[in-house]
Specification:
Elements lengths: L10 E4 L3 H12 L4 E4 L7 H5 L15 H7 L15 H16 L3 E2 L2 E8 L15 E7 L4 E6 L1 E4 L27 E2 L8 H7 L3 E5 L3 H15 L7 E5 L18 H15 L3 E5 L3 E6 L5 E5 L10 E4 L28 H4 L14 H4 L6 E3 L13 H15 L3 H5 L14 H5 L17 E3 L16
Parallel strand pairs: 1-2, 1-7, 2-3, 7-15, 8-14, 9-10, 9-14, 10-11
Antiparallel strand pairs: 4-5, 5-6, 11-16, 12-13
Helix pairs in contact: 1-4, 1-10, 6-7
């Protein structure tokens, strides 16, 4: 694409997931030409990777209003609003038809490898804002291309950059070497090959959010099946178990989210999983049989497991944005104005304040991070948040400040939205006499007499 005046250029949207496609719909509604660049082979590629997982939001909460308005004339039928789609349902019944409607405005197999200002690296001030954005792309066939844009909306998500097992935010020693027995996604136990991998095995699940709940519940279902005898989960938690560990339960305004936490609790109560509390993974070692031993920061190890499922959250890939001037919070890697509103140490999904283009803006004018990526490492994102984000951002790009500032967002309260910082803070009634750290690693079964696999005392 040749360089032109910024006003005549398209707005590039990075990522053809739910939020990226919604951004395109809002741009069209405003008369702005979108160009959506998707690294995967089809729209919603990341969503299709977890097609077997059911959302805890209903169809009414995962369809963007502008996208629905765009689809309506085609005869598209909105799925039953009060039902819960799986990732596959979401992709097939909504994202695919929307991408098909957008046609050549969506380019798949187009991986963005760099974004900058044309002729200006991040150091140069002179006439910077008058220059269009330049976006470098590598296509699936290896061909490289350069595209110019009037604005850039990065909705590429965080799916490709999961957080590691290590308690320090770095991969545990030996984690890479043990990759043949580690996955960073909720396994699809309906797939015969995947099912055989976990059936009758002892599997560690590291994490404390909705994905970990899903994995624990799935392993419990497998344990109850005829072909799953002997299946056992080992749930690794960095802090102790408290009233909030399993989410909002019956009090959750998203009932399916509450039920998910209760299912995980049932897996532990029924003996299909043991919970190891106060355990920060420092190393993953192999024993003589090739099984894995998780070792804590203080050197204590757990009994060997056959597989490890690491579900410790995600983090944004910012490497291709190095030449842009971003204003990011040093902890969450979210926009500095947004970070205090989504800090998992203070907020759940339902206590995030309404926010839009002002909180999402960066020193690089005309560039926005939206969707899950806008939250950096915070796990409190919901699809309806992203839809409101892009509505506000696109209104700002269209010059409609009044609409852009009129942000309305009501989110369901409670839920399983804690992050690493929140879960790392010990409860007062769980602290040791010294009060200096989380409980020492302890193996417990809820609803049964507590058994200890490692010493109850332990240093900080």
């Amino acid at each position: 694409m040749s360089k032109s005046t910024p006003a005549a250029l398209p707005t590039v949207v990075i990522g053809a997931g739910p939020i990226g496609l919604a951004a395109a719909a809002h741009l069209i509604e405003r008369g702005i030409e979108p160009l959506v660049l998707e690294a995967g082979p089809s729209a919603g590629s990341a969503v299709r990777d977890w097609s077997h997982v059911r959302l805890f939001s209903t169809w009414a909460e995962v369809v963007d209003p502008a996208a629905e308005k765009l689809l309506a004339p085609t005869g598209w039928t909105h799925p039953a609003p009060d039902t819960y789609p799986s990732g596959g349902d979401w992709a097939d019944a909504y994202l695919h038809p929307l991408a098909e409607l957008l046609g050549d405005k969506v380019h798949t197999g187009a991986r963005v490898t760099g974004v900058s200002r044309s002729g200006r690296d991040r150091i140069v001030d002179a006439d910077r804002e008058a220059q269009p954005f330049v976006v470098h792309i590598t296509h699936a066939d290896g061909r490289e291309e350069r595209i110019f844009a009037s604005a850039v909306i990065d909705a590429s998500g965080t799916w490709t950059t999961p957080s590691p097992a290590g308690g320090s935010g770095l991969p545990a020693l030996g984690e890479r070497a043990a990759s043949d027995r580690i996955t960073y996604r909720v396994p699809d136990l309906n797939d015969p090959a995947v099912r055989a991998r976990y059936a009758g095995k002892r599997t560690a699940v590291i994490g404390s959010g909705a994905s970990a709940f899903t994995a624990l519940a799935s392993l419990a279902d497998l344990a109850n099946a005829d072909d799953g005898t002997g299946t056992k989960g080992l749930w690794i938690l960095r802090r102790g178990i408290s009233g909030s560990t399993f989410g909002g339960g019956d009090a959750d305004q998203l009932p399916a989210r509450g039920a998910l936490g209760l299912a995980a609790k049932a897996a532990v109560d029924d003996g299909h999983a043991d919970a190891v509390t106060g355990f920060r993974t420092d190393a993953i070692e192999r024993n003589a049989d090739g099984r894995l031993i998780l070792v804590a920061e203080d050197g204590r190890g757990l009994d060997a497991v056959d597989e490890v499922i690491v579900l410790t959250g995600f983090r944004p890939n910012l490497t291709f944005l190095d030449e842009l001037r971003l204003g990011l919070d040093e902890r969450l890697q979210a926009a500095v104005e947004l970070a205090p509103l989504i800090d998992p140490n203070q907020h759940s999904c339902g206590t995030v304040y309404p926010h839009g283009h002002r909180e999402l803006s960066h020193p690089e004018q005309g560039f926005y991070l939206v969707g899950m990526k806008s939250y950096g490492r915070a796990p409190t994102f919901l699809a309806m948040t992203g839809y409101e984000q892009v509505r506000s951002v696109v209104a700002a790009l269209a010059g409609d400040e009044e609409s852009a500032d009129r942000v309305e967002l009501t989110l369901p309260e409670t839920g399983v939205c804690g992050g690493a910082g929140l879960f790392d803070t010990p409860d007062p009634d769980q602290e040791t006499a010294g009060g200096c750290c989380t409980p020492a690693p302890a193996l417990i079964q809820l609803g049964t007499p507590t058994t200890t696999q490692t010493p109850a005392s332990g240093g900080c």
